[in-house]
Amino acid sequence: GLSGLYRAYWIHQATWAPFNAIYFSIYERVKTELQSGYDWNNAVGINITSSCIAGVTASVTTSPLDLIKTRLQVQRSNMDVFDYKGPVDAFFKIVKKEGAVALFDGVGARCFWLVPRLTVAISSFEWIKAAFSA
Description:
Elements lengths: L1 H4 L3 H28 L6 H19 L1 H11 L13 H12 L8 H27 L1
């Protein structure tokens, strides 16, 4: 039904809000450091490096939230395996049954998906922004 479409909606939002905050904070900080502290004038290199560092950091940091979100979204596929009452219950059951390291299952795939995507998107944005402000 309709509620199935919004399954884990709030935990989804709780995953991406901090992801974006972490990503853009680190991106801007690294970009500023590369532009000023290292006298590096390669704009494309600066954008790619900044985006990769920010993407990996934000992906790893928010990976536990993403794992919980995903498990809640697929919960109905196997209620015996995914017997969660909500995000907090899921967190504690994952840690108890699988160990804290399990919260980072799939972090490599998450980085492999997000980092190139963000690097292309943000580098393109920076290039377009520079082209129109010149």
